[in-house]
């Protein structure tokens, strides 16, 4: 029984370690640029920097990776609510938000 539990936990961690990413193609006109623009927020960032945008994507000038795992399987008496400040979903009972619920499966979705 312990081996099964450990196997499930390791599988879940492995799945979460693979983010959904997209890369921006580099063009000759980008050579020598000092800043790049976030596609979502339209904010400018120095080349070589990293940032998190308003969709909770971790980005650099070459592209972005989704960081949010969306719960898809949890008890029916529970609800999934996105916490923008923490960039994660909170799953709790519908009738009592103070009671958290287990998440059985999550997926990474590329919003682009």
UniProtKB/TrEMBL annotation:
It is found in: Secreted. Keywords: Disulfide bond, Secreted, Signal. InterPro entries: PSP94. Transmembrane segments: none annotated. One of its GO terms (cellular component) is extracellular region. The keyword Coiled coil does not apply. Its main location: secreted. Residues 1-19 form the signal peptide. PANTHER family: BETA-MICROSEMINOPROTEIN. Belongs to the beta-microseminoprotein family. This is Beta-microseminoprotein. It comes from Salarias fasciatus (Jewelled blenny).
């Amino acid at each position: 029984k312990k081996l099964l539990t450990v196997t499930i936990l390791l599988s879940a961690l492995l799945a979460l370690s693979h983010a959904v990413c997209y890369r921006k193609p580099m063009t000759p006109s980008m050579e020598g640029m000092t800043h790049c623009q976030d596609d979502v927020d339209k904010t400018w960032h120095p080349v070589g920097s990293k940032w998190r945008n308003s969709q909770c994507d971790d980005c650099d000038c070459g592209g972005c990776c989704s960081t949010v795992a969306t719960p898809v399987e949890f008890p029916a008496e529970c609800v999934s609510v996105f916490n923008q400040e923490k960039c994660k979903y909170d799953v709790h009972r519908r009738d009592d938000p103070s009671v958290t619920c287990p998440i059985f499966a999550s997926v990474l979705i590329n919003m682009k």
